Amino acid sequence: MNTKSLVFALLPLFILGGVVYYLMGPGTSFLYTTQPLPSVTVENAEFKQGQIIAHIRNTGQETVTIAQADINDRPWEAVVKPTNILPRLATADVIMKFPWMLGVPYEIGITTSDGTRFSYEVEAAAPTPEPDMEQLSYFALLGSYVGIVPVIIGLLWFPFMSRINKQWYNFFLSLTAGLLVFLAIDALKESFEITESIAGAFRGEVLIVTATIATILVLMMFSNRITTKTVTAGGMEVKTKMYGLSLSYMVAVGIGLHNLGEGLAIGAGAIFQVVYSIFNWMNKEMESKITAPHNIAGFIVGIAIMYLTGLLVAG
């Protein structure tokens, strides 16, 4: 790329950047014909020994000043760190020394200098867990029960799976796809529920959909790369497909990403990509159409198993 082409490529970006800077700065009046209202979001609250810490963020367009904090509509002395003057999207901690009681509901209020109050409800107060070795050991043990033990049990089915015919093999693959689709839908549901506690300025719903689609596309790209293997035949290089190995990798990655609590949307996208890989592999390697009766039956049975399992766990 020569210098002239580079200039033509960067010039629109510089102009666009200047327009955005102007509209977000001196030209704000073009975007907002009225005075923007303040908006402060209490993102979460920590309950520690003898004190409550509210983590807040200014999600409005203008700089705000935190003037007061209250608990259950009762003004309470508070310290705001690092400062009570918050520019747009800035965060702060509101620390209140308060003798809270376990299991009691509380409403935390934050009032700005113009008298606008924002609230955050806690259904039942509980101590915020502190990371330590005991907690780490507990989660490691729980991870073993949930992740390692079921895989070992599943491997015991290998002799059985190696002896069944192709139709039953496809049935169990479709059943697996049904299990995974249920997990993906459940992960998306949880993701959208989490957005209720996220400030609207961050467009949580849009981020979830975008992250899901991007994850599917990225994993499909990597899947296509690892499925292709170049071999030499008759003095010529020929590209062959390794669907079985690729599918194994994708299943492992998809389930692993799903288990990341802070990446539900990414996990859902990964699982949808795994389901696509399963059906793609069945179609190309097993010559089995998705619409075959045994495949549809397996898919429905997989979803039913997850649904009934959810009912048992919830009950």
Describe what this molecule looks like in 3D:
The chain has 315 residues and is α+β, with helices and mostly antiparallel strands. The protein folds into 2 domains: 40-122, Immunoglobulins (Immunoglobulin-like); 164-314, no CATH class. It is built from 9 helices and 11 strands. It has helices spanning 3-24, 28-31, 133-155, 158-161, 166-194, 204-227, 243-258, 264-284, 293-314; strands spanning 40-48, 51-58, 64-71, 74-76, 78-81, 85-86, 91-97, 106-112, 117-122, 228-233, 236-241. Strands 3, 4, 6, 8 and 9 form a 5-stranded antiparallel sheet that branches. Strands 1-2-7-5 form a 4-stranded antiparallel sheet, with no helix packed on it. Helix 5 (166-194) packs across helix 9, helix 6 (204-227) packs antiparallel against helix 7 (243-258) and helix 6 (204-227) packs parallel to helix 8 (264-284). The radius of gyration is 27 Å and the shape is flat. It starts with a helix and ends with a helix. The model has no long low-confidence stretch (mean pLDDT 80).
> Radius of gyration from the CA trace?
27 Å
Class derived from helix and strand content: alpha+beta
- Largest beta-sheet characterization: 5 strands, antiparallel
| Strand runs, count | 11
Mass-distribution shape: flat
As a percent range, the share of helical residues equals 40-55%
Proportion of residues in extended strands: 15-25%
Total count of helical runs of at least 4 residues? 9
Mean pLDDT: 80
Low-confidence stretches: none
Question: What order do the helices and strands follow?
Answer: HHEEEEEEEEEHHHHEEHHH
Number of self-contained structural domains: 2
End-to-end separation: 64 Å
